[in-house]
């Protein structure tokens, strides 16, 4: 299968390439960006290359999709968004995303997620999309609720990240 390219008013959503390493490193290397991410802040361009290779490997294995969010006006990758933990037999997958803080609070992630949800429901035949967030990540919660995701509760000590157990707030969206 060829990686799907999606487009919005301000973004081109496409497969990541190793040429995107510097753009990803720019924000993945910032501690405040990684606060709610299950990885430590990147220390080198190799870290960025490794995550790109990981995302593309998951696509190659049929386990998910991770789109580069390329800002049309700058030809720059400003974030990624996509599906992981795709359970085809259950018609569900998890969505994940992150964005360069230079572009926070401009509704760019919402703009990106809308066609990705359409792709998930129509092309991947998903019935349900899950999103797990840190309970203190109010920006992510606002984003998800604006996209009609429902708060389904908090699971205590659900993930082990960065040497400690952390809670996870589950949001779900059902294709009706």
TrEMBL record:
Keywords: Transferase. Residues 11-167 form the N-acetyltransferase domain. PROSITE patterns: GNAT. SUPFAM superfamilies: Acyl-CoA N-acyltransferases (Nat). GO terms for molecular function: protein-N-terminal-alanine acetyltransferase activity. One of its GO terms (cellular component) is cytoplasm. This is N-acetyltransferase.
